[in-house]
Amino acid sequence: xxxxxxxxxxxxxxxxRDKATLFFTFAFPLLFLVVFxxxxxxxxxxxxxxxxISYIAPGVMSxxxxxxxxxxxxxxxxxxxxxxxxxxxxxxxxxxxxxxxSRYVLALAVGVVQAAVFIAVAMLPGFxxxxxxxxxxxxxxxxxxxxxxxxIGVIVGTYANTPEAVAAIANCLMVPMAFLSGSFLPLDxxxxxxxxxSRALPLRYLNDAATGALTGSGSLSTLWTGCAVLxxxxxxxxxxxxxxFRWSNRT
Length: 251
Prior knowledge:
Helices cover 74% and strands 0% of the residues. By secondary structure, the chain is mainly alpha-helical.
């Protein structure tokens, strides 16, 4: 059995056995959908005339997927380094790319399942999300988004030495980014300068691509532009993550 298979299987078992992680990965984002969906049920955004649910559902879904990617890898790397597991792995022929690839495939699986559950709930009569015919295009956006945020999580997990530090750093990044990127409120309701700030944030492009794919808003070029920018963020943060990666707290 290869090192990749062993690490992936171990990661899967750890994921399904940790009930708290499962709750915060799958149920926690759904709570936001339920709360915002019920508050704005049947209402349209004044600036565009489009239903709130067509903004909120893709936005909260994107935030949930991105959050899971960041927190999952960050906590794992911090714990493995603190428990000296990474140092032991380094003594074997297993390269860093195999370690990260085993976490990457798990993050992709979790993200796709998260999105499927989220979309199914958002389409229930109480919420009323209507999928556009180009909804399958959400898949490349999700893959690129998860890749970019996983790379951010690698950086967080490299610098944080305790669970509290991981939570503090990741929340400082993800919570403001969610509001500034339009995950919880449509960007059309925000002032122009905040919309300009949002263009520096990867979650903005994941929101745009997911919204365009699921609801048909915007052009296909906007959707592909979002994917291209997410690819750029993934390459940038991936390079930083590989450059700064630490196998042990002693180095």
